[in-house]
Design goal:
Distance between the termini: 51 Å
Largest sheet: 7 strands, mixed
Strand content: 5-15%
CATH superfamily of the largest domain: Spore Coat Polysaccharide Biosynthesis Protein SpsA, Chain A
Shape: globular
CATH topology of the largest domain: Spore Coat Polysaccharide Biosynthesis Protein SpsA, Chain A
Structural class: alpha/beta
Radius of gyration: 20 Å
CATH architecture of the largest domain: Alpha-Beta Complex
CATH class of the largest domain: Alpha Beta
Number of strands: 10
Length: about 300
């Protein structure tokens, strides 16, 4: 059984992550390889990361191709039985991270295996509070929580997929920009009745966006969510798995909600931007923004 560690990179120094991986794979070099594909990062990051080409396979793209397409591109460079995807801003927190995966893969032979990710316990500075709060509350489910509903949510950071499965189900390249490529991928896994296994083997999300940067990414991601729903032809299966879509269907025609959002959009965004990271307030903003996006499209 062979494994390729796949690290898509954009404007991030990955030397620490790769060195940690190399340390853990030293005794398994015959069956574990590491591949970095750099999505045309700025020169400063390219100069830092290209040094790693002496120890791992490093591919630098001559143009930026986006979050979905770059993940599919690893199929061109790997012939392993399994591919392990790790986001470039992650850090290892388990000294047996690789061996834990190898042991599970050899024993269970799953098509898809999720290790998940966690955020720092310490509360960050207020300027980074929104991303941390959202990630800690909404994204960082522990192993037992994920096992209770194994197919309900899927994240692209820290998961393993078999080569055969990945050749059958790849990331949808019609979705560009930031956000919800994992939503579409998880949807396709579900549609094809592929079981998602879970293991207690998280990585640490090591990079926190500022409140403003996270708000901009969230707004872009909401646009991608509408596009993703169009791509699946408004399938109710996706609707049932994405909570904000359910609320969107219920409230998109509501004059009072649109009026309320019009009145409070700017002050709500201001509070979120300065670090008032209340999740109910954030939900109000996201739903209003999603409804507003749909109105603009119409």
């Amino acid at each position: 059984m062979t494994l390729t560690v796949c690290i898509p990179v954009y404007n991030q120094d990955v030397t620490s992550l790769v060195l940690s991986l190399l340390k853990q794979t030293k005794s398994d070099q015959n069956r574990v390889q590491i591949i970095i594909i750099d999505d045309h990062s700025n020169e400063s990051f390219y100069l830092v990361n290209r040094v790693l080409s002496e120890q791992v396979k490093y591919v630098y793209l001559d143009k930026n191709i986006g979050r979905s397409k770059i993940r599919n591109k690893f199929l061109e460079y790997s012939e392993s039985d399994y591919l392990l995807f790790i986001d470039c801003d992650s850090s290892l927190i388990n000294e047996q991270y690789i061996s834990s995966y190898l042991n599970y893969l050899e024993r269970e032979k799953p098509d898809v295996l999720v290790g998940s990710s966690v955020y720092q316990i310490e509360k960050p500075k207020r300027n980074y509070r929104l991303r941390w709060q959202y990630g800690s509350i909404r994204e960082s489910e522990n192993h037992q929580q994920r096992k209770l509903n194994p197919n309900t949510s899927f994240k692209t950071n820290n998961f393993v997929i078999s080569m055969n499965c990945f050749k059958q189900i790849s990331f949808n390249e019609r979705l560009r920009g930031y956000g919800h490529e994992d939503t579409l991928f998880g949807y396709e896994l579900n549609k094809n009745n592929i079981q998602i296994h879970h293991i207690d083997n998280p990585v640490l999300n090591g990079h926190l966006d500022t409140n403003e940067a996270f708000l901009l990414k969230t707004e872009e991601g909401l646009g991608n969510l509408l596009k993703a729903w169009e791509i699946v032809d408004f399938d109710v299966q996706l609707l049932n798995k994405i909570r904000i879509l359910k609320y969107y269907i219920n409230y998109k025609g509501s004059l009072w909600y649109r009026t309320l959002f019009w009145l409070f959009k700017k002050p709500t965004r201001y509070l979120l931007r300065i670090g008032f990271s209340n999740m109910y307030l954030f939900d109000f903003y996201k739903l209003g923004y999603l409804i507003e996006l749909n109105s603009k499209k119409a």
